[in-house]
Amino acid sequence: MSWFRPSSLALGLAFSASLATAANIQVTVGKDSKLEFNPPSIKAQIGDTITYKFFSKNHAVAQSTFADPCHLQDNGVFSGFTPNASPDVAAPTDFTITVNDTKPLWFYCPQTNGDHCQKGMVHAINAPDTGNTFDAYKAKAQQAATPSTPPAGTLSVGGLRKLHIDVGFNGELMFNPNNVTELVGTVVEFSYNPANHSIVQSSFDKPCQPIDRDGGGFVAPFVPTQQTPSGVTFEVTLTNTDPIWFYCAQTKKSHCQSGMVGSINAAAEGAKTFQAFKDLAAKASPSTIGPDTPVVGALKLNGTFIANVGGNVLDTTTLDPSLGGQIPPPDMNYPPYIGGMAGGDQPANYNWGDNITDEAVAIFKSLQYIDNFIVALLLEGFSQLSQGQWSEVYPGSITQSLGSLVAQSLIHRRTYTDSLQHFGKDVVSVCDKFDFAAALTDVDTWLATVLTGLHLSIGATLDALTLLATSDPWTTPALATGLGSQARMSALVNLMQNHVAAAAPREVLIPNTLATSYVASHYATDSSCAPPSGDSAKAFPALVIKNKTVQPDTNRVKAITIEIPKGTTGGLFIAWLGPWGGLKYTSVDAQSSTADVPDSLSGHVWAVLTNKDGVSAADLDTVTVAGPEIMWVSQQWAVSDL
């Protein structure tokens, strides 16, 4: 019986993979006072986003059919009109759509004052090169009936309309823009700048004080920062056209009273204009802010949602690679935003037993050593994703998920450090000399290394569960409950690398000694980064795979050719560690240094070079010559077969 539609599964896999490489394409609308979209016609892939930037004087983006230009089609995309006086500085409001298929999409500006569409102000996505081409659409638009639709005042639909407001613009005590008119449904995004500001909604009559009403208003915390941009944003969505008043509650230099206030949809005339609000603020009593933030809106750090900061200050100064070197005591938390990014903090109580065995101490130190490596690797790469050279590689949803992985890894490591400290045992010193130069060459290499680290941690944790279930039963829930998030994240990274999310029904167990050896042999630069056992014999040389023989029709790896370590004599074997504790051996040909890959394996497996076969996984380190090394063998079926 089939439990899925093959075409739907294939499409889903393709769509998931496309998200990992999605591009953002920017299109200007009316720049330099020209009635044109630039570029007028573009090609886009599934998952790509298109952001429209508006210039003078008052333009919009509307979707039509090819046959009926200048008129909004049923259920068509519409940005809403966006007035702007500048011909060369974009309006603070933009509009973004996501491409869901590669069918042609036709757009135009519906401004009737000057009949923009009929004068050729049209745009296309994925227009064909023959037949219904972009030029043919433009020619039809120039003959279209007037007036264009929809009229001014129509709300946006089919995309994300976003108003960008800078907090502390250009180092000044101001919001920019500070007085705007916007449509219902618009997302207002406040972006923090230096030095230490907050965002609080007030009433008109009581500037500089939180609004006093049922449900309150939006409140965003103080964010001390010296970075521009800081990476911290706060979003609220306009649900009606009522005027909104807001201020910065910083009392140092009296920000609110000094004019750091703003309004949305304030009246242009009368007693309650923006200027009247600003004048009232200048005479207001000292500013205040609530004790807990954020309230109502969505606070994000580099795209990652933060549910609560544990007060009214978001300290982001520690979000850098040095965070990996900090091992807090069990009764001390990381900065609150880490728990917000992770989806929760470490448990208050691990239900520790009365004691911990020496074996459990050794295993927990091995697991912490592996997690020290993962945390350091993630922090180094995420700094490039959030603010460095990779900042434009992935859409926000992917960056947000990877940010959650960083925070979860910090929380995950505390299972070992909290437990060791609780029983008065030493934790493993954090090595600051892991060699990540090759891993950080590009974002794909970094992701592949992250995936390897996740598989190391998952496999070593499974080994620990089997070894400690009887002697230290309290460790079972402490270890097992951390596997889920790591497995989900490895599935995400698999998709980003065009692999099936879960190619095997079980995870792969790897002995702790081999897992720590992998980290040491690949990334440790000196003795300070050696495995915690201190036994140099456990740091086996890396297994070098020189070539893979791939079966063309299935894309499965059928055999590997390895580099034999110098001084190695006698018969050699490859031990293949597969799902559910699976362990198979194949011999290494003495002449070609080639070993077959067992047909039953799927997904990621570990290969270990040994001098004996038939040895159990528990004793594998006693016969290991080199390795382990991770390999993608292939899923048991190809998407093209479905």
Word description of this protein:
This protein has 642 residues and is of the alpha+beta class. Helices cover 24% and strands 21% of the residues. The chain contains ten helices and 28 strands. The two termini are 14 Å apart.
Task: Give the topology.
Blueprint: H1 6-20, E1 24-29, E2 37-38, E3 41-42, E4 49-54, E5 58-59, E6 62-64, E7 82-83, E8 93-98, E9 105-108, E10 122-125, H2 134-141, E11 160-167, E12 175-176, E13 179-180, E14 187-192, E15 196-202, E16 219-224, E17 232-237, E18 244-247, E19 261-264, H3 274-282, E20 298-301, E21 304-306, H4 336-342, H5 358-387, H6 396-422, H7 443-468, H8 475-480, H9 483-496, H10 512-523, E22 545-551, E23 556-562, E24 573-578, E25 582-587, E26 594-596, E27 604-610, E28 624-632
Parallel strand pairs: 1-4, 3-10, 11-14, 13-19
Antiparallel strand pairs: 1-2, 4-8, 5-7, 6-9, 8-11, 9-10, 11-12, 14-17, 15-16, 15-18, 17-20, 18-19, 20-21, 22-23, 23-26, 24-25, 24-27, 27-28
Output the structural class.
Answer: alpha+beta
Share in helix: 10-25%
Major β-sheet profile: 10 strands, mixed
Low-confidence stretches: 1-20, 636-642
Number of domains: 4
- Tell me, rounded to a whole number, the average pLDDT: 88
The termini sit apart by 14 Å
CATH topology of the largest domain: Ferritin
Number of helices: 10
CATH architecture of the largest domain: Up-down Bundle
Overall 3D form: flat
The share of residues in extended strands comes to 15-25%
Radius of gyration computed on alpha carbons: 29 Å
| Total DSSP E strands | 28
Looking at CATH, the homologous superfamily of the largest domain is Ferritin, core subunit, four-helix bundle
CATH top level assignment of the largest domain: Mainly Alpha
